[in-house]
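Materials and Methods. Structural model of RNA polymerase sigma-70 factor. The 188-residue sequence of RNA polymerase sigma-70 factor from Maribellus comscasis was retrieved and submitted for structure prediction as follows.
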Amino acid sequence: MGVDIPLHGFNEIYTTFYKKSYLFVKSYVHDDMVAEDIVSDSLIKLWQQLKMETIDPIAPYLFSILKNRALDHLKHQSVRRDVYHKIATTLERELAIRTASLESSNPQEVFAKEIHSIIEETLKRLQPRTREIFIMSRFEHKSHKEIAKFYHISLKGVEYHIGQAVRELRMSLKDYIPLLGALFFLKL
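The predicted structure was written out as tokens:
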């Protein structure tokens, strides 16, 4: 940058300093377009300053402008990289938490309270005898024969009441049936 000649116009400034300025800036920013932008802006700033005051020698002044603009760019890149790194780290942490949470969840446990509540509400809506017969069969593990004897009804009567209860439960739990598939109380 050792050229210290009197300059009269922007073209002279550009032709005299562009190539050396570009090579200097590019050696630090490692990006052709960014280097071109920094050099163009710096040469314009130098030319505007020359219109207001005499700068002698020009090369050190231009070097100072180029250096400051390149430093600003590198600092900005560093800040952006840090922000991207923090965002990526946060996203990775959140993804790990969601993955671990999903891996440790058991759909039957997640919906167990809700299903239990639906079952209780459905049983409450049944006719009293149908509810009692279903409870004896499915929860107290009484045989159809024992239930028939207790209520003085036929085996077909017991099957009818259990069938009614199962139909009502299937309707109430239709959204949960895939989760409940093998549970014993929905089998006839």
